[in-house]
Design brief:
Largest sheet: 6 strands, mixed
Distance between the termini: 49 Å
Shape: globular
Radius of gyration: 18 Å
Low-confidence stretches: none
Order of helices and strands: EEEHEEHEHHHEHEEEHHEE
Strand content: 25-35%
Strand order of the largest sheet: 6-7-8-3-9-10
Mean pLDDT: 91
Length: 261
C-alpha cells in the first residue's frame, strides 16, 4: 500500500461558503504529520471529512485504499483513531477508565456491548502503555485533563488503528503535564509497528522531533505541505498566520514567536 491516507482535490462548501478548497494531502507509511493554521482555516472540517462526519462537496478521500462513498466508512473508522476533546462530553461521568478504553474496540461511547475477558486484558495493557495503569477503576469524572488524554489515546489504540489523529491534545494542560504528554507522544511515534500520527495544533513548540512532515492551511486551502524542515519556517508560518513570526529550532524542537512592530 503506497499510502495510508490520500486526499485529492477535496472541496467542502456549505451554502455560499467555501470551507475547504482543492485540498491535496497524502500520508504514507512511516510518516508523522503536524497540521497547523489559524482559526477558521479548515482544520476541523478536514478532520471531519477524513473521519466521515462531514460529506465533501467534491474530491476524493481514500483510507488504506478504500474510497469514501464506495466503502462502509463505519468499518474503516476502526482503522482510524482520533483523540479529541469533542469526545469527552459523550463519556458517562461514572464510566471507569478501563471501560472507556475497551469501548474503543467497538467504536462506542457509553459502552454497552458485551465485552470479553480478552478485551479487559488488552485494555489494561494499553493503560499500562500510556502510563495510566493505576487509573483503570477510576471514574471518568475524577480524571484530570492529562489523564483523560492518555485514556483516550489508549481507547483509540484498542482498535489497532493504522492512523491516529491527535486533535489539539494539549489544550487545557498545564506546562508540566503538557511536556509529559508530548514526551509520551514522541515515544508513541517511535514505537515499532505503531500507527502513523497526525497532530493538529496551534503551537510549533508541540512538534516533537519524530514528526516528519507538516501541512499548513490558510483560508481553506493548502498554504504549504511537505517535509517539516521546509514548511516550519519563519516565512511560511508568517504567511499562513498573516503575521511576522520568527521560528527558531533547537535540539529538534521549535519555538515560534510573533513579532509585534
Amino acid at each position: 500500500m503506497p499510502y495510508i491516507l490520500s486526499v485529492s482535490r477535496l472541496c467542502v462548501a456549505r451554502g455560499k461558503t467555501d470551507i475547504l478548497r482543492g485540498v491535496n494531502w497524502t500520508v504514507k507509511k512511516g510518516e508523522h504529520w503536524v497540521i497547523l493554521g489559524p482559526n477558521g482555516c479548515g482544520k476541523t472540517s478536514l478532520l471531519k471529512s477524513i473521519t466521515g462526519y462531514l460529506s465533501p462537496t467534491s474530491g476524493e478521500i481514500a483510507l488504506l485504499g478504500n474510497i469514501y462513498g464506495e466503502t462502509d466508512w463505519r468499518e474503516l473508522r476502526l482503522k482510524l483513531g482520533i483523540v479529541t476533546s469533542a469526545l469527552q462530553a459523550s463519556i458517562p461521568p461514572a464510566e471507569t477508565a478501563l471501560d472507556t478504553v475497551v469501548s474503543g474496540r467497538y467504536a462506542q461511547l457509553d459502552l454497552w456491548a458485551a465485552t470479553t475477558r480478552g478485551d479487559k486484558v488488552e485494555g489494561r495493557r494499553l493503560l499500562k502503555f500510556v502510563g495510566a495503569s493505576h487509573l483503570g477503576a477510576r471514574e471518568w469524572a475524577y480524571l484530570s485533563q492529562g489523564e483523560r488524554q492518555r485514556v483516550l489515546i489508549a481507547r483509540a489504540l484498542m482498535a489497532r488503528p493504522r492512523l491516529l489523529i491527535l486533535d489539539e491534545p494539549c489544550a487545557g494542560l498545564d506546562p508540566v503535564a503538557r511536556e509529559e504528554f508530548l514526551r509520551f507522544v514522541e515515544a508513541l511515534a517511535k514505537k515499532r509497528g505503531g500507527p502513523a500520527l497526525v497532530l493538529v495544533t496551534h503551537h510549533a513548540e508541540e512538534i516533537m522531533p519524530s514528526f516528519t512532515h507538516a501541512l499548513l492551511l490558510r483560508g481553506g486551502k493548502v498554504f504549504a505541505s511537505g517535509a517539516k524542515a521546509q514548511v516550519i519556517t519563519s516565512r511560511r508560518m508568517g504567511g499562513a498566520f498573516g503575521a511576522r513570526i520568527a521560528v527558531k529550532q533547537a535540539k529538534g524542537r521549535y519555538l515560534a514567536s510573533v513579532i509585534i512592530a
